C-alpha cells in the first residue's frame, strides 16, 4: 500500500514528537541513575568502604607462650612442649574416609576419633582443618610426612602445650592447666578475648591458677583477608603477642622430689621452710598424681580412681588440709601462760594421769602420770595435765592471741589453691558459730591443741619458724616473677620475751635430744645440726569411757580412718635455726613414731642439700636408715609413673 | 509498496552498503562490549577463562550476524516480522510444553553452539511485529478500539507465556517495550492514561485492602511482596545479594579501588558477579567515573538510535529502531536500578556487558536490524 506523502510526513512528525518525549524520559532516568550512583559512591562511600572492610577483614588471635615455672635453682618445673597434631582438610582429601583408613595404618587412632573427625568434617566448611589426632609422637609425624602422597589433605600441625617435667612432684604446688570451661568464663566479668580461642588452656589449680594473669601473657593478633565463605585468602598483618612471665618458685625441686618420695605410701603432708626468709623449700603432699594427665585430658576411669582414693590424692594437704595440731600446739599455750605471768618456767604441776574439772575427767596420754612437771619437762614429755592447768589459768582469749601471733588461724598469702584458714577458737567465735557458751572443758581441749583448734601444716611451719627465730616471718612461695624478686616479708620481732621463747626452745630441744624426749629416737648426731621439735598426736575422735575401760585405744586396732594423726614440727640447727619442718601423717598414729623420723630425714636432706651422711643418725639406726635411703634413691631413679606404683606397693 | 520501496533507487546497493552503516553505533557497541570483556577478565581473577574469552567469541559472532542482517534490505525484515513473531511464539510454547513434560524448568533450546532462549528472541520479534503492524495499519485507524486490541493481544500472548516460566524481568521488558511502540505509533494518550490509572488503582487497592476484611491477597503473598520490594527486610536471604551489591558499589568511591582490586567481587561476596551484578564490579573497581562512563556510552547509543530513527521517513524503520533502542534502554535501566537497590531483583542482564550468549546475540541481531534500517533508508537527493 502506498501511503500519501502527507500521511508519511504526519506519521514521521508524530513519531519524532513522541520519540523525543520518550528520549527525554530515558535521559532523565539515566540522569537519575547517575545521581543515585553519585550519592552512593561519593556521599556514602566511606560508609560502604567500611562495610566492605568489615566483610573482608577478620582478626584472629595468636595465643602467647605461657610463662615457665622454675624452682629456686632454675630447674624447669612447668614448661611448654611442642605438640604435634594431625589435621585433615576435607577439600584436599578426595575421599576423607579412605584417607583416614590409610592414616590408621600408620598412626593408631581409635574408632571414636575417626567417627568424631568425620562428623566434624561434615559440619564444617570444606577448607577448615579438623583435628584427627592430638599429641602425636614425633616418629608418627615423620611417618605421616613420608607417606604424604598417599594421604592427601593430611598435615601435621605443631602447637605448644603445657608439660610438667617433674610430673607428680609438684602436682599440688603448681597444679595444672586445662581448657577454658564455660564455668571459668562465667566467673569473669570481662574475659580476655584469648579465652575464646578453642582449646586455650588456663590454670585450673595451684600456682598455675593463682598466677594465671602473670603466666598467660597477652595475645598477638593476625589480620587476614577472608572471602565470602570465610576462607582465608592472605595474611594482611601480624602482631606477635607477649609471652607470659616466667616464675621462679622458692621451692627446691630436688628436695621436693625427696619429700614426695619420702612421704610415698602415706597420706601425709610436709612443709620445709627457710626460717630466715620464709621461703618454702618443699611443700609435699602424698599421695600425689601426675598433672600431665590433666593437661592431656584425664580419662574418667583415672579420674574416678583419684576421686575415690581414701588417701585423697587430689587434696593439697599442706595448705588445704587442717588438722587438730595436738601437742604441737602446746608451745602456744605455754607461751601465752608465760607471757601472761600465770606461770613461770620453774613452777611444777603434779600430773596424776588425769584431772577432774567440773566432774569430768581429762586424761593425760600417760595413764600413770608424769609426777611433778615443769615447763621443759611438759614439752619434753608432752604432759597434758600441765597444759590443762595452765590453759585454765590463762584462758582461751590469751591462747588465741598467742596463736595468731605465731601465724595460726591466718590464711597465709601463697599462690596456692584453697589455702585453709584453720581455726583458733575464741568465746565470741563459739557463740557465733556454735550458738553455745564457752565452757572450761573447751579451754582444756584447746590447751593441748584438740577440740576446736585446727591448723594446716603450713601454719604449723610458720609457727615453728617464728618460735625458732622470734621474728614475725611470713612464708614465701614465689621468689621472682619475670626476674623481679618478690620481697621477703618479715614483720620484725614478735612481742614475746626472749627468756620465755628460750624456755620454749629448750623444751623443744629436749623433745628430740633428751633421753626421755618424745622424739628422742629421731635425734640427729653431731653438734652442728641438733634439732628442736615437738611431737603431736591428735585424735580424730573421742575416746569413749567404755573404750578406755576396755583398754582398746591402741591405734593399730582401729580402722585407718579413725586412727590418730601423727604430727611433728621442728627446726634446726637448734642454736642457729635455718630450716623449719612440719610433717603430718594422716591417721599415722603417734607423732614420735610416724612423723618425727620423716621430719629428721627431710631436715637432714635440706641441710646437706642431698643425701645426708649416715653419721648424722644414731649408730643403732644406721642399718634401717641405709635401707631406707637406698629405697628412696631407687624410687627417685624411676620414671615418675612407676614411682606411683612403687609408692602403692610400699603402702 | 511502502514509502521505502517506492524510493528504493536512492538506497545504496552491494558492498557499498558497508560504507553507509552507522559506524558510530558500531564503535559504541564495541566500546561497551570491551568494558564487558575487561570486567569479565577482572572477576575471573585476571584470567581470560572462563568468561572473557567465551564472551569475545560470542561478540564476534554477534557482530558478524549484525553485519549480515544489516546487508539485507529492511523491507525483507518487515515481511519476515509475522513469521518471526509466530516462530518465537511457537518456540515459547515448545519450551513451556517441554518444561511441563519433565525436562525440568527449561527455558532454552540447545542450538549446539549456544542455548537459545525463545523469550530473548521474542524481545526483538515482538518489536518487529508491532512495527510491521503499525506500518501496515492506516494511520487514521490507530486509536480505534479494535485496532488497539490487536497489538495488545500480540503483546499479552508472549508475556503470558514468559510469565509462566516464570521470568518477571523479560515480561516487564516485553510489556513496556510493546507499550512504547504503541505509544510511538500514535495510539491515543487516553488509552495510556487509562491503563496507568487502572494499574495504579489496582496496586493501590491491593495494598490498601491489606489488613482489612476484604483484603485481596493472602497474608503470605503480602509478605512475599514485602521482601520483593524491600530486600533488606530479609538480610540473609533475598537481601543478601542486594546488600552486598550496594556495599560493592558504594565502596568504589570516586575513582574506584583499582582494576582487579575490588574486594567484594574478588572475594565472592558479590553474587552473580559475572552476570546480572557485573555493574557493581565495574563500579567497585572504577568508581563513579567508571560507572558514569558506561552509562554515558549507553545514552550515546540511545541518542544515535534516536537520531537514525528521526531521519528515517519509513514508519516501520523508525518504529523498529526506537523499539529496539527502548528495549536496550530497559535492559540497562532495570539492571542498574536493581543493583543500586532502586528496584527489586529481577533477572535482567546488563546489555552487552553481562556474561551470557542469548541476550548479547539477540541485542546484536536487534542492532543489525537498526543498521539495516539505517542503510536502507530513503535518502533525500
- Number of DSSP strands of chain A? 23
Pair of chains with the largest interface and how many residues each contributes: A-B, 44 and 53 residues
Strand content of chain B: under 5%
Q: How does the overall form of chain B come out from the CA principal axes?
A: globular
Order of helices and strands of chain B: HHHHEEHHHHHHHHHH
What is the alpha-carbon Rg of chain A in Å? 37 Å
Uncertain runs of chain A are none
Spatial separation of the terminal alpha carbons of chain B: 20 Å
The helix/strand class of chain B is mainly alpha
Major sheet of chain B: size, sense and barrel closure?
Answer: 2 strands, antiparallel
Helix content of chain A: 40-55%
CATH-defined superfamily of the largest domain in chain A:
DD-peptidase/beta-lactamase superfamily
The gross shape of chain A turns out to be elongated
Write up this protein.
The complex is a heterodimer of chains A (651) and B (381). Chain A has 651 residues and is α+β, with helices and mostly antiparallel strands. Helices cover 41% and strands 20% of the residues of chain A. In chain A, strands 2, 3, 4, 5, 10, 18 and 19 form a seven-stranded mixed β-sheet that branches. In chain A, strands 12-11-23-22-21 form a five-stranded antiparallel β-sheet, sandwiched between helices. In chain A, a hairpin with a 5-residue loop joins strand 11 and strand 12. By secondary structure, chain B is mainly α. Chain B has one domain (3-375). In chain B, strand 1 and strand 2 (115-116) form a beta hairpin. In chain B, helix 2 (23-43) runs antiparallel to helix 3, helix 5 runs parallel beside helix 7 (168-185) and helix 5 (118-136) runs antiparallel to helix 13. Chain B starts with a helix and ends in a 6-residue tail after the last helix. The relative contact order of chain B is 0.16. Chains A and B meet through helix 1 and helix 2 of A and helix 7, helix 10, helix 11, helix 12 and helix 13 of B.
